[in-house]
Structure formats: structure tokens, C-alpha cells
Specification:
Blueprint lengths: L2 E10 L2 E11 L4 E5 L6 H9 L6 E6 L2 E2 L10 E4 L11 H10 L9 H14 L15 H14 L4 E5 L7 H18 L2 E6 L2 H7 L2 E6 L2 E6 L1 H6 L4 H6 L4 E8 L2 E3 L3 E2 L11 E7 L4 E5 L5 E8 L3 E8 L4 E7 L13 E6 L3 E4 L3 H7 L11
Parallel strand pairs: 3-8, 3-9, 6-7, 7-8, 13-19
Antiparallel strand pairs: 1-2, 1-4, 4-5, 9-10, 11-12, 11-14, 14-20, 15-19, 16-17, 16-19, 17-18
The protein binds adenosine-5'-diphosphate and magnesium ion.
The site of adenosine-5'-diphosphate (ADP) has 11 residues, from strand 2 and helix 1.
Length: 367
């Protein structure tokens, strides 16, 4: 199913939860909605599922207006964070439920349903749980059953709201790979909500980054990582160091910063901010340098350095511990900072910036 969302708005009381979303999802696509808690991801899924209604905007699926359809007429599979299984049914019967309640003409035979359930049990690695009741399962096991139940009906649209949130890391990775395989086998259009970047990027064709009820950026992992469209996305993607800069003829300058790695581009002269990841910041010893190392913490593989410049600005640098320069980078040492990669945004005018800087800056790839 192809989904077209436009101008979608939702308020709860005084809170703008969705502030005018535009999103097109192609048939068969697996899209991840990625954003921090409270950004509106669940509300968007609920509107698509027919469990909430928007205050304004459109939701069209294969050209039909879905805002006129009740939830039960949308033929979707969904798994929400705390989706309840039927407590009085064994796992096996929970998985079969969606198939057994189909109208007689579409209902598969008993043997077909049983085979389908066995296949799902095997997929989910829960064959040993088949005859248990939900109360006899861990939270993670319940979510796997809930996912199996959603998949059992072979939905054309699958909505998953942090379905692996309760599982430990190794099982999450396995299930991610498994879900990707299932998606490719079934071809169902899938929207997967997560606040975990790694999960979103490994799983999805496209990632939609949401923040405070807005879509901040849509793209593939590399583009979002290297070319964040807004300060929000830059911070969310780990560019936690923010330093004041000045733009002069398209080139950024900052106190004690070596920014030649950042390509020149069209920016109006004026002030702005550099967003960089600690691992893209290289302190270079320089007796005239305005940066001074305040602290140095080793985690074995890496050194985390906290530096401050003569204007009081703070930066963090993350460098491999076993490099020749590391010996000189001790508290009290003075340096410049070489910035290997980063995103530049003009000061203020945040809303305008997010749309005008889609191309962001080009970084030299020779690192
Ligand atoms: N039924 C509701 N009533 C009032 N506020 C709500 C309701 N549902 C969600 N919200 C608020 O809407 C915002 C977005 O919530 P949600 O869509 O759950 O975000 P996310 O899934 O990204 O964490 C939050 O501030 C939340 O408190
Ligand atoms: Mg949520």
C-alpha cells in the first residue's frame, strides 16, 4: 500500500504534537520513524492505524481517504509498545487468531492455519512457548508473540512501535535481521518506530527523523549522518560539540579551529555554529593555541579529552589512545583543534535553515 500524508496536525490540549507532516511511503517500503521520546511517533502511527484522528491534514492510502475508514477496515498488522495478547489464549491460538476470525470465504483451512502458526513459532524461536499463556511469558517473549500475531494475517501494512524495546541487544539484532527477511518475503509496507539509530539505519530503506512534531529530515543513513538538515538532527546524530563560528566569504572561522576540511559553500557572512562529533575533533599541540586540555579520561581504547578555549568555550575530543600524539595530550597542554567533519548552521533562523540547508556541507572523504 502506498501511503500519502499531508498537512497532518494533532493537538492534545495546549500541546502541538504533530505540526504539519508531509510524508510519502511507497508500496513495499520499510520506513523507520526515528526520534526522541515525545516527538510524536506513536501519535502518527495511531492516526495511521485509526486509533486517533488528526485535527487537520490528509491520510490517503492507495488513493483512498483513510480518515473515513474505521480501524477494523484498514487491514493492518500492528504491534505497539505494550500491545496486550489475549490472556485466555495459548500462544498458538494468539498467533492463529487473526486468521480464524476472517470471513469464511477468505479463511484458510485448519491445517493451513496450523502450518502457518508452526512456521511463525519457528521463525520467532518460540516453539517451546507454543502452549503457554501470556501470563507465563516474559515481556520480550510477549512482544515476539505480538509480532507473530501481526504477521500471521500477512498484512499489507505493518505498523511496529518500538516492538523490540523490551528485548536484550543480541535478540534485537537477530530479530532485526529476521524482520528484514520477513519484510522482503512478504513485501508488506512497513513503518517501524524506534528511538535507536542503529536499529533504524540497519533495518530501513529510508529513515524519517522526527523532532517535536516535525519531520526534520528524510533520507538514508549516510546522508543523515554526514549531512544533517538541522541543528536538531546534528545533535541527535551525536554532534554534541557546538562551537561559535563566523562565516566569511563562504568559509567558516573559529577561535583556534582548523576548518579547512569543511568545504566552502554558500553561506551569508555572519555568525553561526559548528556541530561536530567528539571523534571528529583532533587536538593538535600548538604553543600558541587557544585551547587548553582540562581533563583526560581513558576507557582503554579511547581517550576522552575535555578542552576549553580562552573565550570559555568547551569542546570534547575522542581520540584513539594508541596514537603517537596521545602522549602529548595531557591536562594543561595547549592545542588547536582540527575539525575533520562537522555541520555548519547560521545563527538563529532555525526554521529557515532546516529547509535551505538540505545539501549541508560537503566533507572531504580522505580521512
Ligand atoms: N492521549 C494523549 N493525551 C495527551 N497528550 C498526549 C496523548 N498522547 C500523546 N500525548 C503527548 O504527545 C506528545 C507525543 O507523544 P508520542 O506520540 O507518544 O511521542 P513518541 O512516541 O515519539 O514518544 C507527548 O508530549 C505526549 O505526552
Ligand atoms: Mg512512542
Amino acid at each position: 500500500m502506498a501511503i500519502s500524508i499531508s498537512g497532518l496536525q494533532k493537538r492534545f490540549g495546549q500541546t502541538d504534537v504533530l505540526r504539519g507532516l508531509e510524508l510519502e511511503i511507497s508500496k513495499g517500503e520499510l520506513v523507520a520513524l526515528l526520534g526522541p521520546s515525545g516527538s510524536g511517533k506513536t501519535t502518527l502511527l495511531k492516526i495511521i492505524a485509526g486509533l486517533e484522528w488528526p485535527d487537520a491534514g490528509r491520510l490517503d492510502v492507495d488513493g483512498a481517504n483513510w480518515l473515513q475508514l474505521a480501524a477494523q477496515d484498514r487491514r493492518i498488522g500492528f504491534v505497539f509498545q505494550n500491545y496486550a495478547l489475549f490472556p485466555h489464549m495459548r500462544v498458538r491460538d494468539n498467533l492463529a487468531f487473526g486468521l480464524t476470525v476472517r470471513p469464511r470465504a477468505e479463511r484458510p483451512g485448519k491445517a493451513v492455519i496450523a502450518a502457518k502458526v508452526d512456521e511463525l513459532l519457528h521463525f520467532l524461536q518460540i516453539t517451546h512457548l507454543a502452549d503457554r499463556y501470556p501470563a507465563q511469558l516474559s515481556g520480550g517473549q510477549r512482544q515476539r508473540v505480538a509480532l507473530g500475531r501481526a504477521l500471521a494475517i500477512e498484512p499489507k501494512l505493518l505498523l511496529l512501535d518500538e516492538p523490540f524495546g523490551a528485548l536484550d541487544a543480541a535478540i534485537r539484532r537477530d530479530l532485526r535481521r529476521w524482520l528484514r527477511g520477513v519484510h522482503e518475503a512478504t513485501g508488506s509496507t512497513t513503518i517501524f518506530v524506534t528511538h535507536d539509530q542503529e536499529e533504524a539505519f540497519e533495518l530501513a530503506d529510508r529513515v524519517v527523523v522526527m523532532g517535536e512534531g516535525r519531520i526534520e529530515q528524510i533520507g538514508h543513513a549516510d546522508a543523515i549522518h554526514d549531512h544533517p538538515a538541522s541543528p536538531f538532527v546534528a545533535r541527535f546524530m551525536g554532534a554534541t560539540v557546538e562551537l561559535p563560528v563566523t562565516f566569511v566569504a563562504g568559509r567558516a572561522e573559529g577561535l583556534g579551529l582548523d576548518l579547512v576540511q569543511l568545504a566552502r559553500r554558500a553561506l551569508p557572512d555572519g555568525t553561526g555554529t559548528l556541530f561536530a562529533r567528539p571523534e571528529d575533533i583532533r587536538p593538535v599541540p600548538d604553543s600558541a593555541g587557544p585551547w587548553r586540555i582540562e581533563s583526560r579520561i581513558s576507557n582503554g581504547a579511547h581517550l576522552r579529552l575535555v578542552l576549553r578555549n580562552t573565550n570559555g568555550a568547551e569542546a570534547e575530543a575522542d581520540i584513539p589512545r594508541r596514537t603517537p600524539q596521545a602522549d602529548a595530550l595531557v591536562p594543561g597542554a595547549v592545542t588547536r583543534l582540527r575539525i575533520d567533519a562537522g555541520a555548519l548552521f547560521p545563527a538563529e533562523r532555525r526554521a529557515a535553515v532546516a529547509t535551505s540547508l538540505q545539501t549541508s556541507l560537503k566533507l572531504e572523504s580522505s580521512r
